[in-house]
Amino acid sequence: MRFGVFDQGEQPGGVALGALLESRLALAERAEEVGFWGYHKSEHHLIPLDHAPSMGVFLGALAQRTSRMRLCSLVHILPFYHPLRLLEEICMLDHLTGGRLEIGFGKGVSAPEHQLWGLDPDEAADRTEEMLDLLLSAFTSEGDFSYSGRFYELEDVPMELRPLQDPYPPLWRPGNVEMAAALGVSTIVGGPIALVHAAIDRYQTLRQPGVGGGHEPTVGAIRKFIVAPTDREADELGRRAWATYTHNLGLLFRRFNCPIPNDPTIGGDYDRACELQVIVTGSPERIRGHVEDLTANGQVDYVVGAFAFGDLSHDEALRSIDLFGEHVIGA
Question: Is the pTM above the cut of 0.85?
């Protein structure tokens, strides 16, 4: 069994940016100390959901504060980057981490973020597909490389930097089991235990060699976890944090009158989110029992938890990490 942390860099409110960033770096350090295998960072812009929107800067800082944990973007939103800038950044990060880097990619779920950047949301999928093709072509080229596409035209570009991992870091495509399977890359799934197991079955049935670069893919299960000394306290924290998380996630969608696609807050309905096991709260014993149920049939060997979200304080998130490390990972 392996365990991971998922973080969005969410602003709990009333915390200075420097202090917030330091708290997230400290959280990652503690996660490594108690036995977590991976740390996954999402990317959002212009929203309280993410106060560490520069993926390269944040992962570069994490590389200096950790030594063993895998560091993974989940995801780089590919339309937001120039391919040469991202190409060089990935190469640098792979060396800064000592080969611990993993790259998640996607188009992003927030049309308003694209609009505010002057991007056309309707082009996001095509831009993502072309950017991925360009990056992989560059990573596997010998010497200079050229690329001709709808959005990018590059000619005789020198490949001065190369990743440490050959031919490139492991890749992740969350949010679409079929696409991840077709590409032969890692992914992560959520929802009730039965649906998680069904999604993993489907992935294994559809899996192709794809563009995984020879790295063995992982299919993980993800939840938001709150661990507290008692079930009641954990539930109270969860209900409070869920309201803030719902507000922060929906801020730009409400401003632009856009529906939230595949709304992970379940419309802000905390009780429904608990029922669907999007969020799991409780004492160490309850959380351990849930993880045992999730992994009982052997399909799930990687469990990722978000421990810092909504208005949870650093100390509350750190306590969850510590209790999870002691009573779940340690068990």
Answer: yes
